[in-house]
Design goal:
The chain contains five helices and 22 strands. It is mainly beta. Strand 13 and strand 14 form a beta hairpin.
Length: about 300
């Protein structure tokens, strides 16, 4: 019997060791969005927006005076509402928590009315299992081959990368009709849900749902645009139902909001209601309802 107890103790110790994160990064919510502080090229306390909707990382060009950067090229930036040409800087180093990554390329984008220094994109997230915990306000980074994570209570969902944009299958329900398809996951957006213009126009959603207001948004391409806000009766997401959601209907003719490959994009005012584990390597994402479930939609 003593040998059995010792063996079980050894297994528990191995499991606990395997579940220990490589790095724990505190975050804070501001206007529904997730922000973290990182070190860039030895400059500390650089404020980043944690953005699953960005496949590349960004430095706000208005913050470049406090971050030593060498501009060495230009690239095309595709924002939510358009496309523009911007500078980029290669060969940078970023440290977040106990993780340091080198040879990082930052795109420089002139965000005019935001109070952050950069965007932490999926290029920095990949290579690890990512756990976003809204109870402790922590982002935990695990080895991507760690198969012993405790996923009790989580709903496992297939993660699709559509044009390098993370997406899941979901459903919106309007007047007893279901509209299903792929929905992008955009933690960098502070809204609830934006429906892409082709899908909204094809299904005439502006008349199918009650208009309750208008929203103004600024894309990373610098464009500022206005969209109608409608009341969506119900959304099915990760085997859960959420009701009476304010949804914006895009009218974009350029940029990601004009895609025909996705129905729309969940913003972080929706996503913050779920603790999330992202497994880029194996193509899965896990969701568990948290304390934010009953927070009001703005």
């Amino acid at each position: 019997m003593k040998y059995i107890v010792a063996f079980l103790t050894l297994l528990l110790c191995i499991a606990a060791s395997a579940q220990k994160p490589i790095s724990v990064l505190p975050f804070f919510l501001e206007n529904n969005s997730v922000y973290v502080y990182c070190k860039v090229n030895k400059t500390d306390s650089i404020k980043f927006l944690f953005d699953t909707g960005a496949d590349g990382s960004v430095i706000n060009s208005n913050s470049k005076k406090k971050i030593p950067l060498k501009i060495d090229g230009k690239s095309e930036n595709r924002g939510s509402n358009g496309v523009n040409t911007v500078d980029y800087s290669s060969h940078n180093t970023i440290q977040f928590g106990d993780i340091e990554k080198k040879e990082i390329r930052f795109t420089l984008i002139p965000y005019e009315s935001v109070r952050f220094d950069g965007v932490f994109g999926t290029d920095l997230m990949k290579g690890n299992l990512i756990e976003i915990d809204y109870h402790r306000n922590e982002i935990r980074f695990y080895d991507e081959d760690d198969l012993l994570m405790d996923l009790t209570g989580y709903e496992k969902v297939k993660l699709h990368m559509i044009d390098n944009y993370p997406a899941v299958e979901s459903i919106i329900m309007v007047n007893d009709k279901e509209y299903s398809g792929f929905f992008g996951l955009d933690s960098g957006a502070d809204d609830v849900l934006t429906i892409a213009s082709p899908f909204a126009n094809k299904n005439v959603l502006v008349t199918a749902m009650k208009t309750i207001g208008k929203a103004t948004a600024q894309g990373s391409d610098g464009s500022v645009y206005e969209m109608p806000v409608v009341l969506c009766p119900a959304v099915q997401f990760a085997q859960k139902y959420l009701y009476n959601l304010p949804v914006t209907l895009s009218g974009s003719t350029e940029g990601i909001d004009s895609t025909e490959k996705m129905v729309g994009f969940f913003g972080n005012q929706f996503l913050k209601r779920f603790n999330t584990v992202i497994d880029f390597k194996n193509g899965f994402i896990y969701f568990k309802l948290n304390k934010n479930l009953y927070s009001e939609f703005n």
